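To whoever is on call:

I kicked off a structure prediction for a single chain this morning and the downstream step that reads the tokens threw a length-mismatch warning. I double-checked the sequence; it's 243 residues and nothing unusual in it as far as I can see. Pasting both halves so you can look.
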Amino acid sequence: MKPITILLALLAIPSTLLADAAWQRDFDALLRKYVVDGGVHYAAWKASPADLAAIDSVVNRIGADEPSHLGRNDKLAFYIDAYNAWIIDLVLRKYPIRSIKDYAPLYGIFTAKNIRLGGEAMSLNHLEKDLVLAGIGDARAHFGLNCASRSCPVLIPGAYFGSTIDKVLNERARAYMVNPYGVRFSGNKNTASLSMIFKWDADDFTNAAGSVVAFIDKYRQPPLPTGVKLEFQPYDWSLNEAK
């Protein structure tokens, strides 16, 4: 292909598509630098003026962009990355903290309209509950969204992209079903101690698979045995800081 033809093809791509790819690539690089074993090196990140400016740039571009032009998988990746980027940015602004519950009022980091997407001020709860879970309707998104806490499904060291999101969300769902914070099974008692996510958002999993246990068994190996008794474990809100 001649250089002029390549240039014309690039000019034909909507600018928003190029911007989406740019901020997601930048976010991906930051995660690869600071995320280890599901934890974040917040202290090192906070100590780097360049990388603080970089995450601010990422969320500023998210705030100005919106994904209405994207297909389903690209839109889901956009929303998950937007949520994870914003919560990291909010934590870094207040760091050092021991828990996101240190935000006032209690759980205010989720309920306040302290983020922007597509030029609209909104809360993290609105992004998660309305745009991702109700809007797209994929219960696996629970395992991509990270609330900066120990009991959350872990933050992966990289961004989500539409081209691989089905594969990666399946991997994240399988990982959470054998993570003690997600599903802790006791064979002696035939009891499964589940994350509170499975209680708070039971409708998402029931709508997807018929029941919470059926959803878990879809991704868990070995599956939970017939007649298993369910209980819910306390949620650990301590910060997901890398050890």
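Update from on-call: the warning came from a stale cache, not from the record. Cleared it. Sanity check on the structure: Strands lie at 35-36, 39-40, 115-117, 120-122, 183-186, 191-194, 229-232.
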